[in-house]
Amino acid sequence: MSHPTHRPECATFLLDQGEELRTVMELLGHSTIRMTSDTYGHVLPARARQAASAIDRILGQEGTA
């Protein structure tokens, strides 16, 4: 990703869509995954909530089958 103006938007979008942190790190050219996480980690709590909701749905359906 070379255009600096759109880097934050692209990284945030990719993470919000579920792309792996390591993939975003590589696209941005960050030297460490920590740099990417520290910069764009604000997106990850929403993904964790979505994952928890998915597990709740699965477990809720498990008892009805």
Topology:
Layout: H1 7-16, H2 21-28, H3 33-40, H4 44-62
Descriptive overview:
The chain has 65 residues and is mainly alpha-helical. Helix content is 69%, strand content 0%. It contains four helices and no strands. The chain has helices at residues 7-16, 21-28, 33-40, 44-62. α2 (21-28) crosses α3 (33-40). The longest helix has 19 residues, at 44-62. It is elongated and about 45 Å long. The mean pLDDT is 84.
Keywords:
4 helices, single chain, 65 residues, mainly alpha
Helix content: 55-70%
Classify the beta-strand content into a percent band: under 5%
The N- and C-terminal alpha carbons lie at a distance of 46 Å
Largest sheet: none
Low-confidence stretches: none
- Element order: H for helix, E for strand: HHHH
From the spread of the alpha carbons, the general shape counts as elongated
Name the quaternary structure: single chain
Total DSSP E strands:
0
Structural class by sheet pairing and helices: mainly alpha
Please tell me the overall pLDDT. Answer: 84
- Number of helical segments? 4
Radius of gyration, in Å, reads 15 Å
Quick synopsis:
By secondary structure, the chain is mostly helical.
